[in-house]
């Protein structure tokens, strides 16, 4: 009888637990999504009806696959290829629309005032996190943290990107850029003529990797090349993972992607630990060179102050700088060279400005070149701003609503996500005018604040984010890009090769040219 009683209790406990679990699952996958959908529709938002578990993901992936199968002209909107489902959703349902990321409704914010408010109130609107823990293996640095931890890390990192620090990096920028252009000249010479066809994309990637290695860790690209290869691979794997609905516990299933993610993460961690241990050892024996004003030295030095980072946190910040610092600038340079090839009048205008400001000598005296000299390149700045408008590194930013929040004239219910689609906002004719889809750097002649149709529309332009969370490396990326373009424009003119295929892609997180940037380089 006692045994039967214990069995009955056990069965009852199992039944209660199973019922509770089933209720939580049904609430997550059906009742909550339908409740959120009703709340949004009652406020005038529109979109496709929620479908159990998958939401819009199946249709979104099919549309993305179809868009990637078509060739596109360089004058077409890149959003048609990399952002087709939200693009068509907004066209069909209007600017107050939503899509379904699995069981989570994602509202599209297309009003610059709303975007400004969301990006300003960083504590009220934290960054979204993918539910799959494997996506955090790439880097969990300052860009992914929220709340007090974000504020602490931002405070520690800020000094590394002050203007005075950036001035010290000019010789490094120059050296890395010059080495790349010297390689191009060797390729041209080997052809026996004054021009050649070359895919400049991998060269730009290697050059920006070299800059990161030297400025962050005091080493060369060759020393850190394996880390870059692994981080690029991890970025591609994360895109695959992020496009799937995560089932709790799925990360432990030894799928091909899961297994490779863990292998890559382990190798990156070991490589980073090796670099850090080497620097710490040098610091302990009093090697002055070990206290360089690079990012790694700054982070390790913080361990001796009130603002403290663990070694694990130092590794994460270094990984983030490796990834974000390289990806952002290399893609910016690639799209700039592609667009200047398409629009040679702007290329020549930028070249003449460089020659006027910095002289006609092909060999720049970088000791006389500083950030103030680069800041005189107004045309180049306009061009870079316009490239970032048309090809923002991050096509959209995602924020979460943790409690019912009033935004403008509507209330977003807790559990909703907000999409801030830069790639769509940046080309909205209501904001930028009838030429919003065209390459026209002249719109930035009076700066970013007056570039929109209704001047000073804050929240309409955010290629590096906006507000307190604006990209900490923005000035670093701009200075590096200007240095590279200055050297390139002095020594080469360039045009699109007939073999160039225009294919914007987000297969590696940032907006990149999928099939490279094949150009015809002409030695000047």
Notes on the protein architecture:
With 524 residues, the chain is α+β, with helices and mostly antiparallel strands. It has a domain of 155 residues. 54% of the residues lie in helices and 9% in strands. The protein is built from 19 helices and 11 strands. The strands form 4 sheets. A 4-stranded mixed beta sheet has the order 1-2-7-4. Strand 5 and strand 6 form a beta hairpin. Helix 9 crosses helix 10 and helix 13 crosses helix 16. The longest helix has 40 residues. The mean pLDDT is 88.
What is the strand content?
5-15%
**Broad structural category:** alpha+beta
Give the H and E element order: HHHHEEHHHHEHHHHHHHHEEEEHHHEEEE
**Rg calculated over all Cα atoms:** 25 Å
Tell me the number of strands. Answer: 11
Helix content: 40-55%
Strand order of the largest sheet: 1-2-7-4
Low-confidence stretches: none
Mean pLDDT: 88
Could you give a short account of the major beta sheet?
4 strands, mixed
Distance between the termini: 97 Å
Treating each run of at least 4 consecutive H or I residues as one helix, how many helices?
Answer: 19
Overall geometric form: globular
